[in-house]
Amino acid sequence: MGVSFHLFLRTSLALVTCCFALATYGQAAQISEEQLTAVLPQAERFSTKQGEPPVYVGYASSAQDAEIVGYAFETTDFEPQEIGYSAPIEVLVGIDLEGELAGIEILFYRESYKSIRGDFLNSERFPNQFAGKSVADGFRVGRDIDGVSRATISSWAVSRGIRNSAREVASAYLGEAAIFANASVEDQALSLLAPLLGGANRRWAGKALACFARRWLADRVDCCVYGQREARRNACRERRLFTRGTRG
After folding, report:
1. Is the same domain home to 137 and 37?
2. Residue 13 lies in domain
Protein backbone atom coordinates (compact mmCIF):
# COMPACT_ATOMS: atom_id res chain seq x y z
CA MET A 1 0.00 0.00 0.00
CA GLY A 2 2.76 2.41 0.95
CA VAL A 3 4.77 1.64 -2.21
CA SER A 4 1.70 2.14 -4.43
CA PHE A 5 0.91 5.49 -2.77
CA HIS A 6 4.47 6.74 -3.22
CA LEU A 7 4.46 5.62 -6.85
CA PHE A 8 1.15 7.39 -7.42
CA LEU A 9 2.47 10.55 -5.76
CA ARG A 10 5.67 10.58 -7.82
CA THR A 11 3.73 10.01 -11.05
CA SER A 12 1.31 12.82 -10.20
CA LEU A 13 4.15 15.23 -9.45
CA ALA A 14 5.85 14.32 -12.73
CA LEU A 15 2.64 14.96 -14.68
CA VAL A 16 2.09 18.31 -12.95
CA THR A 17 5.69 19.34 -13.68
CA CYS A 18 5.34 18.31 -17.32
CA CYS A 19 2.07 20.23 -17.74
CA PHE A 20 3.58 23.30 -16.11
CA ALA A 21 6.60 23.12 -18.39
CA LEU A 22 4.39 22.89 -21.48
CA ALA A 23 2.20 25.74 -20.31
CA THR A 24 5.14 28.02 -19.65
CA TYR A 25 7.27 26.96 -22.63
CA GLY A 26 8.44 29.96 -24.60
CA GLN A 27 7.74 32.36 -21.74
CA ALA A 28 11.30 32.43 -20.41
CA ALA A 29 11.63 36.14 -21.06
CA GLN A 30 10.04 39.03 -22.92
CA ILE A 31 11.82 40.21 -26.03
CA SER A 32 13.84 43.29 -25.10
CA GLU A 33 14.85 46.29 -27.19
CA GLU A 34 18.47 45.16 -26.88
CA GLN A 35 17.69 41.75 -28.32
CA LEU A 36 15.78 43.27 -31.24
CA THR A 37 18.66 45.66 -31.94
CA ALA A 38 21.12 42.77 -31.82
CA VAL A 39 19.36 40.93 -34.66
CA LEU A 40 18.45 44.06 -36.68
CA PRO A 41 21.16 46.64 -35.86
CA GLN A 42 20.15 49.07 -38.64
CA ALA A 43 16.86 49.79 -36.85
CA GLU A 44 16.59 52.47 -34.15
CA ARG A 45 12.98 51.84 -33.21
CA PHE A 46 10.71 48.80 -33.17
CA SER A 47 6.97 48.31 -33.14
CA THR A 48 5.21 45.87 -30.88
CA LYS A 49 4.64 42.43 -32.34
CA GLN A 50 2.01 42.81 -35.06
CA GLY A 51 0.73 41.53 -38.38
CA GLU A 52 0.28 38.11 -39.90
CA PRO A 53 2.73 36.49 -39.70
CA PRO A 54 3.66 38.32 -36.47
CA VAL A 55 6.76 40.54 -36.68
CA TYR A 56 8.47 43.43 -34.95
CA VAL A 57 8.78 46.18 -37.56
CA GLY A 58 12.16 47.94 -37.50
CA TYR A 59 12.35 51.67 -38.35
CA ALA A 60 15.36 53.75 -39.39
CA SER A 61 14.75 56.39 -36.69
CA SER A 62 12.45 57.31 -33.83
CA ALA A 63 10.40 59.65 -36.05
CA GLN A 64 6.82 58.61 -36.65
CA ASP A 65 7.28 58.72 -40.44
CA ALA A 66 10.59 56.84 -40.38
CA GLU A 67 11.29 54.34 -43.11
CA ILE A 68 11.06 50.61 -42.47
CA VAL A 69 14.47 48.94 -42.59
CA GLY A 70 13.53 45.37 -41.75
CA TYR A 71 11.62 42.94 -39.58
CA ALA A 72 12.37 40.80 -36.55
CA PHE A 73 10.42 37.67 -35.65
CA GLU A 74 10.43 34.58 -33.46
CA THR A 75 10.62 31.21 -35.18
CA THR A 76 8.21 29.58 -32.72
CA ASP A 77 5.40 31.83 -34.01
CA PHE A 78 5.40 29.79 -37.23
CA GLU A 79 3.89 26.40 -37.94
CA PRO A 80 4.97 23.68 -38.14
CA GLN A 81 7.52 24.23 -35.40
CA GLU A 82 10.86 22.54 -35.93
CA ILE A 83 11.58 20.21 -33.03
CA GLY A 84 15.09 19.80 -31.65
CA TYR A 85 16.20 16.74 -29.72
CA SER A 86 13.72 17.48 -26.92
CA ALA A 87 11.47 20.43 -27.87
CA PRO A 88 11.13 23.45 -30.19
CA ILE A 89 14.06 25.87 -30.20
CA GLU A 90 13.12 29.55 -29.98
CA VAL A 91 15.18 31.83 -32.20
CA LEU A 92 14.85 35.58 -32.74
CA VAL A 93 15.68 36.53 -36.33
CA GLY A 94 16.21 39.86 -38.09
CA ILE A 95 15.76 40.29 -41.85
CA ASP A 96 16.38 43.37 -44.00
CA LEU A 97 14.43 44.57 -47.03
CA GLU A 98 16.75 42.69 -49.41
CA GLY A 99 15.78 39.35 -47.91
CA GLU A 100 19.07 38.87 -46.07
CA LEU A 101 19.41 37.90 -42.43
CA ALA A 102 20.83 40.70 -40.30
CA GLY A 103 21.38 38.47 -37.28
CA ILE A 104 19.88 35.82 -35.01
CA GLU A 105 19.74 35.13 -31.29
CA ILE A 106 18.86 31.75 -29.84
CA LEU A 107 16.48 32.63 -27.03
CA PHE A 108 15.48 29.41 -25.36
CA TYR A 109 15.78 25.65 -25.74
CA ARG A 110 15.56 22.50 -23.64
CA GLU A 111 18.10 19.93 -24.72
CA SER A 112 19.49 17.19 -22.51
CA TYR A 113 22.93 17.88 -23.99
CA LYS A 114 23.00 21.23 -22.14
CA SER A 115 23.72 19.41 -18.89
CA ILE A 116 27.00 18.19 -20.42
CA ARG A 117 28.12 21.03 -22.68
CA GLY A 118 26.27 24.02 -21.30
CA ASP A 119 24.74 26.54 -23.72
CA PHE A 120 26.22 24.75 -26.74
CA LEU A 121 23.96 26.30 -29.41
CA ASN A 122 25.04 29.81 -28.50
CA SER A 123 28.69 29.17 -29.21
CA GLU A 124 30.11 32.00 -31.30
CA ARG A 125 30.69 29.90 -34.40
CA PHE A 126 27.17 28.53 -34.85
CA PRO A 127 24.80 31.53 -34.53
CA ASN A 128 27.17 34.04 -36.14
CA GLN A 129 27.24 32.25 -39.48
CA PHE A 130 23.60 33.09 -40.28
CA ALA A 131 24.10 36.85 -40.65
CA GLY A 132 24.29 37.80 -44.32
CA LYS A 133 22.58 34.68 -45.60
CA SER A 134 19.75 35.13 -48.09
CA VAL A 135 16.32 33.61 -47.55
CA ALA A 136 16.95 31.88 -50.89
CA ASP A 137 19.85 29.88 -49.43
CA GLY A 138 19.40 26.24 -48.60
CA PHE A 139 20.30 26.41 -44.87
CA ARG A 140 21.50 22.81 -45.05
CA VAL A 141 23.66 21.55 -42.22
CA GLY A 142 26.87 20.14 -43.61
CA ARG A 143 26.59 22.14 -46.82
CA ASP A 144 26.08 25.88 -46.30
CA ILE A 145 25.67 25.66 -42.51
CA ASP A 146 28.26 24.25 -40.11
CA GLY A 147 26.40 22.34 -37.44
CA VAL A 148 27.35 21.89 -33.80
CA SER A 149 29.33 18.69 -33.34
CA ARG A 150 27.32 15.88 -31.76
CA ALA A 151 24.16 18.00 -31.94
CA THR A 152 23.01 17.41 -35.51
CA ILE A 153 19.30 17.24 -34.68
CA SER A 154 19.40 20.54 -32.81
CA SER A 155 21.47 22.18 -35.57
CA TRP A 156 18.99 21.08 -38.23
CA ALA A 157 16.03 22.28 -36.14
CA VAL A 158 17.56 25.76 -35.79
CA SER A 159 18.45 25.97 -39.49
CA ARG A 160 15.08 24.77 -40.78
CA GLY A 161 13.18 26.94 -38.32
CA ILE A 162 15.09 30.05 -39.43
CA ARG A 163 14.81 29.21 -43.13
CA ASN A 164 11.09 28.42 -43.14
CA SER A 165 10.03 31.36 -40.99
CA ALA A 166 12.31 33.80 -42.85
CA ARG A 167 10.85 32.73 -46.18
CA GLU A 168 7.33 33.15 -44.85
CA VAL A 169 8.12 36.65 -43.59
CA ALA A 170 9.82 37.55 -46.88
CA SER A 171 6.85 36.25 -48.86
CA ALA A 172 4.36 38.22 -46.75
CA TYR A 173 6.24 41.53 -46.40
CA LEU A 174 8.82 41.61 -49.20
CA GLY A 175 7.17 39.60 -51.98
CA GLU A 176 8.11 36.33 -53.66
CA ALA A 177 10.88 38.10 -55.60
CA ALA A 178 12.93 38.29 -52.40
CA ILE A 179 12.92 34.51 -52.18
CA PHE A 180 13.58 33.72 -55.82
CA ALA A 181 16.03 36.53 -56.63
CA ASN A 182 19.14 34.43 -55.92
CA ALA A 183 17.57 31.00 -55.50
CA SER A 184 18.76 27.92 -57.34
CA VAL A 185 16.34 25.90 -59.47
CA GLU A 186 16.13 23.31 -56.71
CA ASP A 187 15.33 25.86 -53.98
CA GLN A 188 12.71 27.56 -56.17
CA ALA A 189 10.99 24.23 -56.76
CA LEU A 190 11.11 23.31 -53.08
CA SER A 191 9.65 26.68 -52.10
CA LEU A 192 6.77 26.22 -54.51
CA LEU A 193 6.14 22.65 -53.38
CA ALA A 194 6.53 23.34 -49.64
CA PRO A 195 2.81 24.02 -48.98
CA LEU A 196 1.92 20.69 -50.61
CA LEU A 197 4.56 18.59 -48.93
CA GLY A 198 5.36 17.72 -45.37
CA GLY A 199 7.56 15.50 -43.27
CA ALA A 200 9.02 12.55 -45.14
CA ASN A 201 7.44 13.64 -48.43
CA ARG A 202 9.25 16.99 -48.28
CA ARG A 203 12.56 15.30 -47.53
CA TRP A 204 12.00 12.81 -50.36
CA ALA A 205 11.09 15.60 -52.77
CA GLY A 206 14.20 17.54 -51.77
CA LYS A 207 16.44 14.56 -52.48
CA ALA A 208 14.68 13.86 -55.77
CA LEU A 209 14.97 17.47 -56.91
CA ALA A 210 18.60 17.64 -55.84
CA CYS A 211 19.35 14.51 -57.84
CA PHE A 212 17.48 15.91 -60.84
CA ALA A 213 19.33 19.24 -60.56
CA ARG A 214 22.71 17.50 -60.43
CA ARG A 215 21.89 15.34 -63.44
CA TRP A 216 20.51 18.32 -65.36
CA LEU A 217 23.66 20.32 -64.63
CA ALA A 218 25.87 17.38 -65.58
CA ASP A 219 24.00 17.03 -68.87
CA ARG A 220 24.43 20.73 -69.59
CA VAL A 221 28.15 20.49 -68.83
CA ASP A 222 28.49 17.41 -71.03
CA CYS A 223 26.66 19.18 -73.87
CA CYS A 224 28.86 22.23 -73.47
CA VAL A 225 32.05 20.15 -73.48
CA TYR A 226 30.83 18.11 -76.45
CA GLY A 227 29.96 21.30 -78.33
CA GLN A 228 33.38 22.79 -77.66
CA ARG A 229 35.09 19.62 -78.86
CA GLU A 230 33.00 19.58 -82.04
CA ALA A 231 33.79 23.24 -82.66
CA ARG A 232 37.51 22.54 -82.30
CA ARG A 233 37.28 19.54 -84.64
CA ASN A 234 35.40 21.57 -87.25
CA ALA A 235 37.97 24.36 -87.00
CA CYS A 236 40.78 21.86 -87.52
CA ARG A 237 39.03 20.38 -90.57
CA GLU A 238 38.52 23.82 -92.05
CA ARG A 239 42.20 24.71 -91.49
CA ARG A 240 43.32 21.45 -93.14
CA LEU A 241 41.03 22.02 -96.12
CA PHE A 242 42.24 25.61 -96.43
CA THR A 243 45.88 24.50 -96.25
CA ARG A 244 45.35 21.84 -98.93
CA GLY A 245 43.59 24.37 -101.13
CA THR A 246 46.39 26.90 -100.92
CA ARG A 247 49.03 24.25 -101.63
CA GLY A 248 47.11 23.05 -104.65
Report:
1. yes
2. 9-183
